[in-house]
Design goal:
Layout lengths: L1 H20 L10 H23 L3 H11 L4 H19 L6 E9 L4 E3 L5 E3 L10 E12 L2 E4 H22 L14 H17 L6 H28 L4 H30 L8 H9 L1 H15 L1 H7 L12 H4 L3 E5 L2 E4 L2 E4 H23 L9
Antiparallel strand pairs: 1-4, 2-3, 4-5, 6-7, 7-8
Length: about 375
């Protein structure tokens, strides 16, 4: 957790600088507050991203449950709000923070002491009540219809992140193995693919190895796409309005189609690998059979969405039947990690879990099975 803790300290570093720069009547850099706000938002967002990179259980399992816990309802709303603001700041139009000024009326002879040192003395006729006016900027967010100072919101979010790290640490023993992330570990499939390719170079006839080689390439590609689309789906959830809704649907579509490719390629691979020589592959497919069935149903919904809006689901194409009226009640409605079509709900986090499970139990051992053996004979 060292990386996540460092990112939290980085966010805390910029918080006092934001407080110092707000309310300055005179400053060398008029956009100074925005620079510090941008740095704070990026560092704070990186806390959960660092945990996701280091621990394979964080994103697909632990974090969604933590956000969904009713005890964390306030914290979850704040996380979603500031994640969306960070995305706007980094990728779009800048932070949604607003600005207003407080007028400070000064009489002649009055002195204003600046927070960073220095002073402004007002000169004017004796007794003049409003000889000068200073404008002190204030920055605020509008959250649930109420104005809140940006620095107060940032301070609260630091507390949320501290609690999140403490809860995650408490729920995970010292024996938890850090993760190389699902996306990074597609290399395990490529390693196995490399060994099968090496055998292709030395063995004739190919004995089906060419299919194995190509299937492993497809599995690696599909796993990469599954993880990347799930990551984008989580980011899209923090984007407000119709844009966020559309992005979530597109990313869910990519996720389901990629996961379907993963299982199809894996099943084809199983047909070419002797289960007696390498039982983990068949065991992983059997263990995740119900998950694969649910995946196929969800994939068919999203691929044939226009057809099902028009006609519903024909039981001949995937029982049970679903009327168009029922399907139209939810045409890919996304809530957290779940997506709903009609009266059927599918948990995408469970699907990601299954892909990671296969990677851990199959990919890292398959390369050894495919390692070519050479016999040297002397005459």
């Amino acid at each position: 957790m060292e990386r996540a803790e460092k990112k939290l300290r980085e966010a805390m570093f910029f918080l006092p600088k934001m407080r110092e720069s707000e309310g300055l009547a005179v400053g060398n850099e008029p956009e100074e507050f925005d620079y510090y706000l941008s740095a704070f938002l990026s560092a704070a967002r990186s806390v959960t991203m660092a945990l996701d990179h280091e621990y394979k259980t964080f994103k697909p399992a632990w974090f969604p449950k933590w956000l969904a816990d009713e005890r964390n309802e306030k914290e979850a709303k704040l996380h979603v709000f500031l994640t969306a603001d960070r995305n706007r700041e980094v990728h779009r139009y800048g932070s949604r923070r607003d600005e207003q000024s407080t007028e400070l009326h000064m009489s002649s002879g009055q002195v204003y002491e600046h927070p960073r040192g220095g002073r402004t003395e007002v000169l004017g006729p004796p007794g003049m009540a409003r000889a000068a006016t200073l404008y002190l900027p204030e920055y605020y967010f509008v959250i649930d219809g109420a104005q809140r100072k940006v620095t107060d919101v940032a301070q609260e979010y630091v507390g949320v992140l501290k609690r999140l790290l403490a809860d995650f640490r408490a729920d995970h023993t010292a024996g938890v193995t850090p993760n190389r992330s699902a996306m990074g570990d597609f290399n395990d499939w490529l390693d196995a693919c490399g060994w099968s390719g090496l055998q292709l170079a030395f063995r004739r006839p190919h004995d089906g190895l060419e299919r194995v080689h190509l299937n492993l390439l497809l599995v690696a590609r599909a796993q990469f796409a599954v993880d990347r689309s799930y990551e984008r789906l989580q980011d899209a959830a923090a984007i407000d309005g119709i844009e966020g809704t559309l992005l979530q649907f597109l990313d869910a579509h990519a996720f389901l189609v990629s996961a379907d490719l993963f299982w199809r390629a894996l099943k084809d691979l199983d047909a070419k690998v002797d289960p007696k020589a390498f039982p983990p592959l068949r065991e992983a497919l059997d263990r995740n059979e119900s998950t694969r069935t649910e995946l196929t149903k969800a994939r068919n919904h999203i691929v044939h969405v226009t057809e099902r809006v028009r006609e519903g689901r024909d039981p001949k194409r995937g029982p049970p039947a679903m009327s168009k009226e029922v399907f139209r009640q939810a045409m890919g409605l996304i809530d957290g990690t779940k997506i709903r079509f009609g009266d059927e709900s599918f948990d995408l986090a469970d699907q990601l879990h299954a892909v990671v499970d296969v990677r851990d139990s199959v990919a890292r051992e398959l390369g050894g099975t495919l390692t070519p053996s050479f016999t040297v004979t002397t005459t």
